[in-house]
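hey can u run this one w/ cytidine-5'-triphosphate bound, need the C-alpha cells asap thx
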Amino acid sequence: MRPIPPVLAPQLLRRLPRRQQEVLEAAAVLGERRGVSVYLVGGPVRDLIMGSPGADLDITVAGNAAPYAEALAASLGARVTIHPRFGTATLILQDGLRLDVATARREQYRHPAALPQVFPATIDEDLFRRDFTINAMAVRLTSGGGELLDPFGGLTDLRGGRLRAIHDESYRDDPTRILRGARYAARYRLRFSVRDRRRIESTLAESVLQRLSGDRLFREVQLVLHEAAPEAVLKILEGLGVLRALDPALARDLRAAAQMRRVRQGWQHYRHLGVSPRPELWRVYLLILLRSVPARVRRRVGGRLGLKGPPLAALTGELRGLPLLQRQLEGRRLGASRLRHLLDCASPESHLLLWAGSGRVRRRVERYLTRLAFVKPALTGRDLKEFGFVPGPTYRRIMDMLLRGRLDGHLKSREEEIALLRQRFGRPH
Ligand code: CTP
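ok here u go:
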C-alpha cells in the first residue's frame, strides 16, 4: 500500500501553486454565476494526489464550454481559442499558464481504433468514457472549496499500485490506451490488473493495434520517449507483447536500455556545455531504439510510424552512418579539421549519443562542441569580394580551405590567411 493520506478536495487544491489556485477560484465563481458545474479533471487531479502537480489545468464544464471559456478568458485577461468541432477551448494566460476547457461528453466508437464520435453528456458519463480509473477522478470546483468525485475507485488503485481500465472495451475502442497505460505504470510504479492484462492480450490478438494510423501510433511512441525513463515503459510494453505486435523483430534490447540511462545521466552535464541547437532527448532515444535493429526492420518500423520521404530517409541515413562515424572517432589519429567536418555532418542528437559513449569518442565530441565548432577564419565573404574573387562556389572552397588551415593550426592570423590567398591565387594584389 502506498502512503497516500486521506484526500479532501480543498486540501488537494491547496497543493497547487497560488496562481493556479486563483485561476480555479475564478473558474468556480464564474460557474456558480452562470449556473454550470465546473470540474478539474483527469491528469491534474491524479498528479495532485500523487503530490506532483503539473503546469497545465484541465477543466470540464457540464454545459457548453465555448461561451463559458470566453467569459472566463475575459475575466482572467487570457487569450482564448475555441475548437468548435471538439467542444473544447484553450486559454493562455498572460503568464503563460495554459487552461483547457472541455464540454462534458460521452464517446461512441464506430469500430475499434476509430476516432470517436462525441456527444454532450453529464460529468458521470464524461468520467466513464475515460481510459483508467486513476484518470477518471474530478474535483467539482466551488468557491472556496471543492468536492472529489472518484466513481471508479481511482484513489484506491493509486494507493494499491494498480492500473485498471474503466470498462471492458476500453483497449479495443482505443488501443493507444495500451501504450498510455504502460507510461502510467512506469511513471507511478503501477501494475496492470490481471483482468487488464487479459483484456490487452485479447486486444492484441485481434490485431487492433495494426488498425491505428501511423500518425497516431507515432504520437504515442513520442509520448513514451518523452517519459522520464522510457526504457522502463519499453520493458512493460515488451512484457505485454506490444513490441512484438508492432513488429515481430522488435524486442527490448538491454544494451539500448543501458544507453538510454547513460544518455540521461549525462544530460545535465551536457546541457552545461551550452550546445546549440540543443538535441531533443526523445529523438536520441529513438536513435538508440532503432540502432539496435537491422536496417530493413528500421525501414519497416519507420514506415509503420507513418514516416516516409525525406524524414524517413534522414532517420535511416543517420542510423546507417553512425557505426562508421563511431569507428572514425575511435581511430588513433584524427586531425581537428577532419573531426570538425565529421561532426558538422551529424545531427545534435548523434552528437549527444556519441558523447554519452566511451573515453576517446566522448573527449573528441566534447572538444568539437566546446571549441572546434566555433572556429572560423578571420576573412569573410565580403573580404573575398573586395579582393576581386568572383562570387560563387569558389567562395565556399576558399572559406573551407581557410577553415581547415585555422583548425589544423597552419593559419593563426588574418595576415597569414591573406598570405595564403596571395600564394595560391595571386590576390589580393
Ligand atoms: N483520455 C482518455 N483516453 C485517451 C486519451 C485521454 O481517456 N486515449 C483522457 C484521460 O482521462 C486523460 C485525459 O483524457 O486524463 C487527458 O489526456 P492527456 O492530456 O493525454 O493525459 P494526462 O492525463 O494529462 O496525462 P499525461 O500526464 O500523460 O499527459
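The domain at 161-246 is CATH 1.10.110.30 (Hydrophobic Seed Protein). anyway lmk if its weird
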